[in-house]
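Justification of resources, computational component.

The compute hours requested in this renewal are based largely on the per-chain cost of generating structure records like the one below. Each record pairs the submitted sequence with a full structure-token output. That output is archived, and it is also reused by downstream analysis tasks.
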Amino acid sequence: MVSRFPGAITEVIWIVGILEGQGTHLSFPGGGEPNISFSIQDDNQGALDMFDQLGFRVWLQVEPGDAQVETLFDLILTRYGNHSCVIGVGVDVEWGWRYYPAPVAFQIGYPADKKWWGKYSDPARTIGEAILKTVPNAMGLFWVDFTALEVFPP
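The structure output for this chain reads:
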């Protein structure tokens, strides 16, 4: 996306925890926490190693459900805080006009939306320019991890 927007910095939102029941499921091994389940294997390490090598800046995101956000952040940063690419953690929230004039960011490129964005020769630029043209408080555009390697191959 950086090459499509002058002055932009390469940043990625990488989802490490998704809503599962009333809690969250983290995509790395662990255990013993209320409302938190864990994967058997680490689904993030390889991508974060690559992001380190490419000099990307990464926000690790989680959908907390009823899990304690502080505990999630601690688990995530303990596991991945050593990566030079990791600049922060975030909670999945809704963005948009209702927050004007506060700065907002947009996540784009979801697989369910590919039926329309897949028709563009450069979907990141097309969608990004449309957002920047119509949302004056837009301060960030993030292509989601689900399709990032498809649209931005290494």
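The chain has two domains: 8-93, 95-154. Residues 69-80 form the longest helix (12 residues).
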